[in-house]
Design brief:
Blueprint lengths: L2 E6 L7 H8 L3 E6 L5 H7 L4 E4 L11 E4 L1 H6 L4 E4 L5 E4 L2 H12 L7 E5 L3 H12 L3 E5 L18 E4 L24 E4 L8 H8 L4 E3 L1 H16 L6 H14 L12 H9 L5 H4 L8 E2 L6 H13 L3 H4 L4 H5 L6 E9 L5 E7 L2 E7 L5 E10 L5 E10 L9 E6 L8 E3 L5 E7 L5 E5 L2 E10 L5 E11 L6 E13 L6 E11 L22 E12 L5 E3 L5
Parallel strand pairs: 1-2, 1-3, 4-6, 7-8, 7-9, 9-10, 10-11
Antiparallel strand pairs: 3-5, 5-6, 12-21, 13-16, 14-15, 16-17, 17-24, 18-23, 18-25, 19-24, 20-21, 20-24, 22-23, 25-26, 26-27
Helix pairs in contact: 1-7, 4-5, 4-7, 7-8
């Protein structure tokens, strides 16, 4: 296992171990090193890769055999990797982190006058990124020509970025500047991440100025660091997922008041999810783009082959080019369709002799599932499995949604994941019939181990797709897909299950998403249904489809 961690002089509490635990499977520790011990640690320390924080971002540079272009430009290193020959490679992930913060905030800095508060180590990176994005940068420091005593010279500033520790825990409640001094300000960024909402950001919110805090930057730079550590590419959707988890850990509500003022009553309402759910509900930020209508010649040919094999055309039209190409050489298509209710139904009583028969009748079934398995060429059984869903009725509330798959290899040693990560996306049509698509906010594979009462151990795997439905348009739909192959040469059946969890109300507290919901079936906020594709593979190679209706 890789040995990674955070290098600094005095670290105290850090969110980095928790963030990196979400990103990859390596050990991540905290390395507090005194300045006099730094040379020995860098040359002989027991580590494979490190993040670097103050005061060592410049101090580590002489020990690096090679620097990335961005680290060279900034003269700052916050990522170290020990290469196979023992030498150190230095990189900088802070620039990526801040650029992500800017873009995620939606604040347009191009051509705008931007005030950067502070001239410390972080300031240089922020200045470089802002200039790269087209901003006109002015640095405010305590002793420079542009300082806190002559801020009136910069009342025309459009963007303000705080790189100072002012407002950082435990000295909260302070801000480096009063935003009322900048009547033209249209965006505020604060790289402080603890607290998540600094005094500066709270004032920006009160004035109606778009703003964002440093927690996004922290998670984004960790994601980029992990990519350098492991030489892999990680979807940016992971930044949003991990940011959400951290916010849930960081945020609290404290009720203060005189005896008899109603604290207990309010707390009870919060606990059952009434009152404050309206304040805390949310949805994922989806990157909706017009669905591309152009396909490569090979993808067009594969689409025609799948259609001829029986892949339902409406579902087939939703596949991305990459998913079409993943079905190259398909020999068979297995389809199962089902309609599932996302409502509680109504009770029907029928008197039969001396007894009463009670049943639940569903007048509306809001979700249509199309489950498709595509057989792929190979010496063993290889399949690409697609779980499509489509809302046939208007959604009551558009919050968070989750599709969790129990793939064919879940708790089954006869199947294993094939090469490639799961894929999926969400789509809708506008009033004119044009289609729009967005990747899932998060698409993850979760591995865990369970030991039953007999002592048998199972290695299980879930695929989780998180997203939010659009507030506009119609025909809201999507799919999640993965590949699997048999391992023992004796596989007789394939079973792939999907669980759809829908957030149908904002009345909830604490802040939870559909993925956080751990109950089964219906709750006060979430509803869940299960669907499955199950079939036997007969000796003659034909398929016996089971009609699974949970």
């Amino acid at each position: 296992m890789m040995r990674c961690g955070l290098l600094g002089e005095k670290l105290g509490h850090s969110y980095s171990p928790a963030i990196h635990a979400q990103l990859a499977d390596y050990a991540y520790g905290l390395y507090e090193v005194a300045p006099e011990d730094l040379p020995a640690f860098l040359t002989g320390g027991d580590f494979d890769a490190l993040n670097v924080t103050i005061p060592y971002k410049k101090a580590v540079i002489p020990y690096c055999a090679e620097l990335s272009p961005i680290a060279q430009k900034l003269g700052s290193v916050n990522v170290l990797v020990r290469r196979a020959d023992g030498t150190l490679y230095g990189d900088n992930a802070d620039a990526f982190g801040f650029e992500y913060l800017v873009r995620h905030s939606g604040i347009d800095v191009a051509g705008q006058k931007a005030l950067v508060l502070g001239n410390g180590g972080a300031s240089a990176t922020i200045q470089a990124v802002l200039e790269q994005l087209g901003a006109r940068v002015t640095v405010i420091s305590r002793h420079g020509p542009d300082n806190y005593d002559n801020l009136d010279r910069h009342a025309d500033a459009r963007v303000i970025v705080n790189t100072t520790p002012v407002g950082m825990y435990p000295n909260t409640g302070r801000a480096a500047v009063d935003l009322r001094q900048f009547p033209q300000c249209a965006g505020v960024l604060d790289i402080v991440y603890n607290p998540a909402r600094t005094a500066l950001l709270l004032q920006a919110e009160s004035l109606g100025i778009p703003c964002a805090g440093g927690l996004y930057m922290l998670v984004a730079q960790a994601k980029r660091s992990c990519e350098v550590f492991t030489d892999t590419v990680i979807d940016d959707a992971e930044i949003l997922r991990i940011h959400r988890l951290l916010r849930q850990e960081m945020e609290n509500i404290v009720l203060i008041g005189m005896p008899g003022s109603g604290k207990s009553t309010i707390a009870a309402l919060l606990a059952v999810g009434i009152a404050c759910g309206y304040l805390f509900f949310g949805s994922y930020r989806m990157d909706w783009q017009p669905k591309s209508s152009s396909l490569s010649a090979e993808a067009v040919e594969i689409r025609a082959e799948l259609l001829a094999l029986g892949y339902p055309e409406d579902a087939l039209n939703d596949l991305s080019e990459d998913d079409l190409l993943a079905c190259r050489g398909a020999t068979l298509v297995v389809v199962h369709e089902a309609d599932k209710p996302m409502n509680g139904g109504r009770e029907v009583r029928e008197e039969i002799g001396n007894s009463t028969h009670i049943s639940t009748v569903y007048d509306v079934r809001e979700l249509h599932f199309t489950d498709v398995a595509v057989r792929l060429p190979g010496e063993t059984e290889r399949w690409r499995v697609f779980h499509h869903f489509r809302w046939t009725e208007e959604v009551k509330f558009r919050g968070t949604e989750l599709v969790r798959l129990w793939p064919a290899y879940y708790e089954d040693d006869s199947w294993r994941p094939d090469d490639g990560a799961p894929t999926g996306r969400v789509l809708y049509d506008d009033a004119e019939g044009s289609a729009y698509a967005a990747p899932c906010a998060s698409l993850t594979v979760e591995r865990y181990t369970v030991t039953n009462w007999l002592g048998w151990t199972y290695h299980l795997e879930d695929i989780s797709a998180e997203f939010s439905l659009p507030s506009r348009g119609k025909n809201r739909r999507g799919y999640v897909a993965y590949s699997t192959e048999e391992t023992d040469g004796e596989t007789t059946f394939l079973a792939s299950r999907s669980n759809y969890t829908h957030q149908e109300s904002r009345l909830q507290y604490p802040v939870r998403t559909a993925k956080d919901y751990s109950g089964w079936g219906d709750g006060p906020v979430f509803r869940r249904v299960q669907n499955a594709l199950q079939f036997s593979i007969l000796d003659d190679g034909s398929i016996d489809l089971w009609n699974y209706e949970p």
